[in-house]
Sequence to fold (120 residues):
Amino acid sequence: MAPRDRTTPRHLLSGLLRCGSCGAGMSVEDHHRGRTRIRCTKATEAASCDNTRSYQLDVIEAAVAGGLRDRMVDRDGIALYVRVYNEERQALAAYSVNRRAQIEKRLQQAEREQDRIYKA
Ligand SMILES: [Zn+2]
Fold:
C-alpha cells in the first residue's frame, strides 16, 4: 500500500507509544525471529535520546490488552476507551495530513527553485 493511502494503523498501538525517557514516538526497529522490536525514534534517528533499549512489541501489546481487559468491566469503561482511542487516532491522522501537506509544499518549492536554476 502506498504511504499516501495508509490511514489504517499497522499495529494495535501504532503511533500511540512514547519513549519513557524523552517522550518521543517509538518506531519499529526490526523484525527478529517473527517478532517486532520497537525503539525510541529519537535514539534511532538523531541519537538525541539515551534510551537505546529495544522492546518486544508483542509483550507491550499483551500488557496493554490485559490492562484494558481488567478495566473494561462495564459499559462506561468500554465507552471511555472507545472515545479516547478514536480521539487519539483522529489527532494522529490530522497531524499526518498536515505534515504531508507541509512536505509537499516544500517539495514544490524545491522543484521550482531547481527549475529556476536550470533555466538560468
Ligand atoms: Zn527517547
Summary: DSSP finds three helices and three strands in the chain. The radius of gyration is 19 Å. Residues 19, 21-22, 24, 40, 42-43, 49, 51 surround zinc ion (CB under 6 Å).
